[in-house]
Amino acid sequence: MIGKTTRSNYIYLNSETHADGLGKIRVSVPTEQFKVNPGEMQRLTVQSFDMPIYFHTINPSNKWFFWYSPLADNYTGIAIPEGTYSDHPTLAAAIAAGLNDNVFDLADVQYDAVLRRFTIQPGPLMADQNTPTDPDGYFLSFYASAFPAPVGLTPQQFHQSTHEILGCIPSTTSTVNAFGTLGNVNHVSLIPPRLNTTDALLLRTPLQSHAYQTTNFELGVPEQNRIMGTNIVARIPVDHTVDLISFEDPGGDNFQVFPSSQHLDNLQFYLTDTHGRPLRDLLAPHALLAPLPFSLSLRWDAVVPDPRPPKPAHVPFTGNYRNAITPLN
Q: What pTM does this model have?
């Protein structure tokens, strides 16, 4: 804890009537009740967060992958049907349905529960039942931002998390054969596939100025070996076995923001997934028509910083350890 808290206010927010209803909120604040005196600083602490799970485990952020045919030099999009799949055999059937939806003629997908992997068999013919499956063709899963998207791909299709669903290699800085195999053969998961890719939501605010992140939390930022400033306030875990995302601070003041101004005049918060996608990018088109609110409670504190100088760095003990041990009488 930094210094002494001189006064506190509690703030309870619901986003339904204060924004577009899609994971955003902006409200004005009565400045007189939220300003600090000279020598004080502001602190905001997330106390609780609640939101129903509005998105499926397979959704617009993780349903797309592609078949690339060098012979035809084209990318054919494959969409796993959106939905919430409780086990891998059910998900395997959904992947097969996507493959056979105007892409292949008789593709098959099996899941091995012992080895925890999918086996995808494209079949000998494409969907028109006349064109043979390209013997040099292969699957692609784009999770990219640092190289030009192939012609015909949307920005959303170019930055997917489908490689985690399939257990394959993503194309990040260049196109990569997702399974390392070609043509009408078994294309097998390289790592255990997942049922979902949204483990958490990130609560963000422009007020954040004391936090940092690696580059892969943001869309459109080339992945580099560095950290950068972030507006992330809190990481809220998502449990897909229930229908409500809920967080309550256990008393440790885990998620805090220290606004640098002398007062608050508005509050802004919004939600993304852990890759920087806004909440609306996880939703089916029909869900965008409904209000999808979240509830957030905060504690605002005015704090007097601790005036004491920091403790000196620990100095290693250099004496005689035998003399330092208290004898037993």
A: 0.86
